[in-house]
Specification:
single chain, mainly alpha, 3 helices, 49% helix
């Protein structure tokens, strides 16, 4: 760990997109075996959208900084 704490394990499953990830999670096949995980393992499930090949972290960071600056200048 470089920052924070980590419980020590992770399972990462890649899907073509978030819609297919949600469909997998809601599928009868997964729902049928879901208790195998929830009854024996404590943990969280996150479905997150990834980034494409055109993603530019510098542009994203600049946009977030600009938005944060605008929010701090708004009157309360």
């Amino acid at each position: 760990m470089v920052e924070g704490t980590w419980p020590g394990s992770m399972v990462l499953i890649e899907f073509p997109d978030l819609t297919e990830a949600r469909a997998w999670y809601a599928s009868p096949a997964y729902q049928e075996i879901l208790r195998l995980r929830t009854d024996h393992i404590e943990g969280d499930v996150l479905l997150i959208e990834g980034v494409g090949p055109q993603y530019n972290p510098r542009e994203r960071a600049a946009k977030l900084r600009a938005e944060a600056g605008q929010a701090s200048r708004r009157p309360c």
